[in-house]
Amino acid sequence: MNKPLIRPRRLRRSPAIRNLVRETELNAADFIYPLFVVPGEKVQCEISSLPGSCHLSVDMALHVAREVYELGIPGVLVFGLPEYKDDQGSSAWDPASPVQRAVRLIKQELPDLTVITDICLCQYTSHGHCGLLNETSVDNDPTLSLLGQVALSHAEAGADMVAPSDMMDGRVRVIREMLDSQGYEQVAIMSYSAKYASAYYGPFREAADSAPQFGDRKTYQMDPANAREALREIALDIDEGADIVMVKPALAYLDVVRQVRDRVDLPVAVYNVSGEYAMVKAAAANGWIEERKIVLETLTGMKRAGADMIITYHALDAARWLREA
């Protein structure tokens, strides 16, 4: 009988050897945890479609941010639900809105935690779209100055980084110029560069109360069938001044992540979105999967595909599990 000369199993025979040859290491420093801040005090209300994630008043957001920091997770991404909505989304740049208040408090108490803020109008507008309307369509160019105002208000509150998620053409340049003109050259931009019009966002729409009141977002978010277009969008954002580029969602777009990683030198983020999270939680609740193993395998896959950082609702649990490993 001919015996194999090459035996890959030699390097799998013990945990110690497997650790030595492991190609991709996942750790808490790879994660960013989303926070949903709301008006009020002492509010910590679980979001039904995102089990384990909560709507948080500013005071409670600080408690969760402290837990994030203590687990070694380097950053939070702050979303807000406003006290009022109008057709422009003016509460998005109101310095008394929950996001601005949360940023000020978190940076005051946890100066070493990186605070990133989402820049969009959808949860602030009465119609639920991501910009100003011209009848029933989103009017790109007039929206840009409003996004700049939102970014500036977050920078003034102390944000380390702003993350435009609206998918308006040219918004990275306008935000960069607005920040620079007001002395915030050091505030970075993490751009949602390749954001797809995805069915995976369903639970987030509840979490952020941001579902459009009519139509959909297919005229500004990307067609899920397109990968080359993502590379073009990312190239444009880099030219306009983005410091980090993002692919969203993550799980069904790992091929796009790999292509981006192979072509650009900037850090690449992915967003492990609400639908991806909710499916895992639902299957685990039914006993169909082992949550811990599935989560860590999935997040490792995102990093292996080329992500430098992963925005994920699993961050707190994953950080604890990695500590125990």
Task: Describe this structure as you would to a colleague.
The protein has 325 residues and is of the alpha/beta class. It has a single domain, classed as TIM Barrel (Alpha-Beta Barrel). 39% of the residues lie in helices and 18% in strands. The protein has 11 helices and 12 strands. The chain has an 8-stranded parallel β-barrel with strand order 1-4-5-8-9-10-11-12, surrounded by 9 helices. It has a two-stranded antiparallel ribbon with strand order 6-7. α2 crosses α3, α3 packs parallel to α4 and α7 packs across α8. The longest helix has 18 residues. The protein is globular, with a radius of gyration of 20 Å. The termini are far apart.
Biggest β-sheet description: 8 strands, parallel, barrel
Overall pLDDT level: 93
Count the helices. How many? 11
CATH fold naming: TIM Barrel
Strand content: 15-25%
Computed Rg: 20 Å
Q: Report the order of strands and helices.
A: HEEEHEHEEEHEHEHHEHEHHEH
Structural class: alpha/beta
Identify the CATH architecture.
Answer: Alpha-Beta Barrel
CATH homology superfamily:
Aldolase class I
Helix fraction, binned, reads 25-40%
CATH class equals Alpha Beta
Query: For this entry, what is the oligomeric state of its chains?
Result: single chain
Strand order of the largest sheet: 1-4-5-8-9-10-11-12
The geometry reads as globular
Could you name the key traits of this structure?
single chain, alpha/beta, TIM Barrel, 11 helices
Topology overview:
Blueprint (H helix, E strand, L loop, with lengths): L14 H7 L9 E8 L5 E3 L7 E4 H13 L4 E6 L17 H12 L4 E6 L13 E2 L2 E2 L1 H18 L3 E4 L6 H11 L6 E8 L6 H7 L19 H13 L3 E5 L5 H10 L4 E5 L1 H12 L5 H15 L3 E4 L2 H10 L1
Parallel strand pairs: 1-3, 1-4, 1-12, 4-5, 5-8, 8-9, 9-10, 10-11, 11-12
Antiparallel strand pairs: 2-3, 6-7
Helix pairs in contact: 2-3, 3-4, 4-5, 7-8
